[in-house]
Write a structure and sequence with these properties.
alpha/beta; Rossmann fold; Purple Acid Phosphatase, chain A, domain 2; six-stranded mixed sheet; disordered N terminus
């Protein structure tokens, strides 16, 4: 990163006056605003077509035609340039190179374009096509649409000549003057990477916060990070090839600024380190150059220490600082390092404003009681995809805030020197050897925070803390600030959520609104909501007599999708629940940011509290926590928390009112009325079958009518008896889901999956792992946990498939709900790469009475129901599954909560899409 331009761009170059050559180098940044300057007929449009993509070029003629249907209508010029500037702004906002094809021969025409480039923090580049006026007039004569007089070209050329020498003063950072057709035709456009663009460097990195002359601590931190440091502390290398990144402010205040600089410069020269400038380097450089600067904030110490060094060393320091770039974008764009932080709109951009923000941050314009500027907490509003790692503002702890983290933990003030291991996101720190410089104000609780706190005291040498709650529950920087909670701006309107498993998932605006209603009125504290489970689709409709669903169709579906090994899991007769359980309340506070004595939460599949009585939730979580401890899972998982996807039984535990008001009411009414109907029809049939009363008659017509009525009554009686039996089956079906409970007595938990714990999304583990874990929990607390019975199926082995079908038939014959068929390895793809269904539910004949009604098995109803459409339900299941996994992966990776909520909220929004609720 040496030799870079101070603004983080590329060095300014001009070929104005250059000798004519076959290839004139025209080097432009990959992201910039190119302004083609030249009179009408100079060949700007041809040049643009030759060297740039059609979408990169915005022509004033085209914009004029867009607003007036005539590209030569000069009365539309004002409107045309409004369109041109708008399109250019949108392209630059999106990070796309933009070329303006207009005459732009007058300073007043170019001024708004320079301002546009500055506003979007890109370099304005001028490419002047200097063609003799006579040739331009000749070219225009060949174009019948250019019927203006020769004076137009003459005036344009005169205006260009008057101002071309002042293009750099107008703000153009690179100016190229191509003189004549030969130089224009031989020009070659070379797109150059910005100095800030270091995306090709993928690390791994050890990013080190503000050192401020603390050489002893720096050496100790490097060794703690695994670096080999020379005995004199002047150079270092990592045996595994890691690269160090210094966040600036190497100098001032501390006792050994020259030693720190010598070590950092050697590492940078050796290619094992990068360094970005801090505001203290900026000020030191100006002092070394002899500028009049205020010697304060530790600069006096640096100047005194450097004064004892040879002049050659001071010159080397000056050159080193002069070559530092404002910020760096690393690791494919996933990581940005800047001394004082950087908003997303400034990433990989180049302007004075970018450099100023990267060096000094943003202030509110106020000063605090210590006379220091109040810094604007930009990180609280950050929503960028790239992690931003910075320093500058000392705080007691390194804390993740919205995918940003400040590593200045006040070493020079007696705090700690901290580094972030990337991509591991692990924090490593060493304590200061003492207070080297008295701070003007106490260290804040967090960067930009308004709570002053004591300077962190000394701890054990080589202290190491992870960014997540691990076995010991330690946490540094869990992203749980109150201002990180759900923000309506993060979820409202049409949204496109990127999910690793499926690509983008679209959330429609109306669904987002419905989800917001649920979330704002009924949901638990959103900090608990790191996962919501997906819906499940049924199998293709069965054509077997009397059945809608059968495992054979599920097996056939997976076989067609190229899946060989599946597993059939017993479908429990309860309510879906997500359980977040922490080993203790301290872990809950550290990892989830919630001070809850319960140390967890139990929610429904739509994020609402599962229990109306909080004491039941607390008691259940205590039992689950105890079972985890007994089974040794906290240690085995290396985590102080876990998220379970489970079923809570009985169904009446959650749906008692639903059962009473709907199912039981319908069952009682149906059985009572149908029993009376059957009794009346039976009596009527018997009476009619006995024949007419009174004297015998020879009226054959009357006898025939009586017999016909008896036959009809008998059929109605049989139908009533059949319907009565169906109603009885309906009552028996819902009764199986109800049993009395007293507190937790009678309550059962059937875990499907342990979906996540610290450091890993376990939902991606093969299903047998989860079933074995459920068995271990049942062994630890058999009164509470119910294991899930299952059968594995090889879809190329008819015997295992037949055995699974037989097992399903046995389950459902005794009233079981059915089973869920899943790919054994959780995530499976079809031969075309499509994500196959994560689970297909195969419900039994009697359970479906609760879904479709008591009489759904009649031939007429079955025929209608077999026409049910499953495509939308399957699409929902796949999208919700992908969003659920994405939410877990983001949470486990300690991404900001708004990123996790984006996915969880998406699942909730998809649930509001119109689909047959019986599927």
């Amino acid at each position: 990163m040496r030799g870079a331009h101070p603004d983080g761009g590329v060095p300014s170059v001009s070929i104005e006056g250059a000798p004519r050559a076959r290839t004139a180098p025209v080097g432009i940044p990959e992201l910039c605003l190119v302004v083609l300057v030249g009179v009408s007929g100079s060949g700007k449009s041809t040049f643009a077509r030759t060297h740039f993509r059609p979408t990169e070029v915005i022509s004033s003629d085209l914009c004029r035609a867009l607003v007036s249907d005539d590209e030569n209508d000069q009365t539309a010029t004002r409107a045309a340039f409004e369109v041109l500037h708008t399109i250019a702004a949108k392209r630059l906002e999106g990070g796309r190179l933009t070329v303006v094809d207009a005459t732009s021969v007058r300073p007043e025409d170019r001024k708004p374009l320079v301002e546009l480039a500055r506003r979007h923090h890109v370099l304005p580049v001028a490419i002047v096509l200097d063609v003799p006026p006579a040739l331009c007039r000749e070219r225009n004569l060949d174009r019948p649409d250019r019927n203006f007089g020769a004076h137009v070209v003459r005036n344009q050329h005169a205006a260009l000549r008057r101002s071309v020498g002042r293009l750099s003063k107008e703000g153009f950072r690179r100016v190229f003057v191509l003189a004549g057709p030969e130089q224009i035709e031989s020009a070659v456009i070379a797109r150059e990477r910005l100095w800030t663009d270091q995306r090709h460097l993928t690390g791994p990195f050890d990013i080190i916060g503000d050192v401020h002359g603390c050489h002893t601590e720096l050496v100790g931190l490097l060794r703690e990070l695994g670096w080999t440091v020379d005995a004199d502390g002047s150079d270092a290398r990592h045996p595994d090839g890691r690269m160090a990144v210094f966040l600036g402010d190497l100098v001032d205040r501390g006792p050994a600024t020259p030693a720190v600089l010598r070590l950092a410069m050697h590492m940078v020269d050796a290619g094992v380190a990068l360094c970005i400038p801090g505001n203290h380097e900026q000020k030191l450089q100006r002092a070394l150059k002899g500028h009049n600067v205020q010697v304060s904030h530790g600069l006096a110490e640096s100047l005194a220490q450097l004064g004892a060094e040879p002049p050659e060393f001071r010159q080397r320091v000056e050159r080193f600082i002069d070559g530092l770039v404002s910020h760096a974008v690393l690791d494919g764009g996933s990581l940005v390092v800047a001394h004082a932080g950087l908003p997303e709109a400034m990433h990989n951009r180049s302007s004075g404003a970018v450099r100023a923000f990267a060096l000094y941050g943003d202030t509110t314009g106020e000063t605090d009681e210590f006379g220091l500027p109040v810094r604007y907490p930009w990180a609280r509003d950050y929503r960028g995809r790239s992690a931003v790692v910075y320093g500058h503002t000392p705080a007691r702890e390194a804390t993740w805030v919205n995918n940003t983290i400040c590593l200045d933990t006040g070493c020079v003030f007696g705090g700690r020197l901290t580094a972030l291991r990337w991509p591991e996101r692990e924090l490593v720190s060493v304590p200061a050897t003492g207070v080297h410089y008295e701070p003007r104000r106490p260290l804040a609780e967090e960067p930009g925070g308004d709570e002053p706190g004591a300077v962190a005291g000394e701890g054990p040498a080589g202290h190491r803390a992870t960014a997540h709650a691990g076995v010991a529950g330690a946490t540094v920087g869990a992203d749980t600030r109150p201002y990180d909670l759900l923000d309506v701006d993060d979820v409202l309107g049409k949204r496109i959520v990127e999910a690793r498993l499926t690509g983008s998932v679209t959330i429609r605006a109306e669904n987002a609104t419905a989800a917001l209603e649920v979330m704002s009125r009924f949901a638990v504290d959103p900090r608990w909501l790191v996962y919501l489970p997906p819906t499940m689709a049924p199998p293709p409709t069965s054509r077997r007599e009397g059945l809608l669903e059968h495992p054979a169709e599920a097996f056939a579906q997976y076989r067609a999708d190229g899946v060989r090994h599946v597993i059939g899991e017993e479908k429990h007769m309860g309510s879906r629940a997500v359980v977040v359980v922490c080993r203790d309340p301290e872990v809950a506070a550290a990892r989830f940011g919630i001070d809850a004595p319960s140390g967890g939460v139990v929610v429904t599949r739509t994020g609402r509290p599962f229990f109306a009585r909080p004491e039941l939730e607390v008691a259940l979580l205590d039992r689950i926590r105890s079972a985890f401890t007994t089974a040794g899972l906290w240690e085995e998982l290396g985590s102080g928390w876990a998220v379970l996807d489970a079923e809570l039984l009985p169904w009446s535990l959650k749906a008692e009112e639903l059962l009473r008001s709907q199912y039981a009411a319908a069952g009682v009414a149906a059985t009572a009325s149908l029993a009376a109907e059957a009794e009346i029809l039976a009596a009527t049939t018997a009476r009619l079958a006995a024949g007419p009363s009174g004297p015998a008659t020879e009226d054959e017509n009357g006898l025939s009518a009586t017999r016909a009525a008896a036959t009809e009554a008998g059929e109605l009686a049989a139908r009533a008896t059949e319907r009565q039996a169906m109603a009885g089956a309906f009552v028996e079906a819902y009764r199986r889901y109800c049993w009395p409970v007293e507190g937790l007595d009678g309550v059962a938990v059937a875990p499907f999956q342990l979906v996540a714990a610290e450091g890993e999304v376990h939902a991606l583990r093969a299903h047998p792992w989860h079933l074995a874990l459920a068995e271990r929990l049942a062994a630890a607390d058999g009164d509470l946990f119910r294991p899930t019975r299952a059968v594995e199926v090889d879809l190329e082995d008819p015997e295992t498939e037949a055995a699974a079908v037989a097992w399903w038939e046995e389950l459902t014959a005794v009233g079981g709900e059915g089973m869920v068929v899943k790919p054994r390895d959780v995530v499976a793809r079809s031969p075309k790469g499509r994500l196959v269904q994560p689970g297909i539910k195969c419900r039994g004949r009697e359970y479906l009475r609760l879904i479709y009604g008591p009489e759904y098995t009649t031939p007429g109803q079955l025929a209608r129901l077999r026409d049910r459409g499953l495509g939308h339900k399957r699409s929902l299941a796949g999208r919700e599954f992908a969003l659920g996994i994405e939410a877990l992966e983001r949470f486990v990776a300690a991404e900001p909560l708004y990123r996790v909520h984006e996915c969880v909220f998406g699942v909730l929004a998809l649930e509001s899409e119109p689909v047959d609720p019986r599927l």
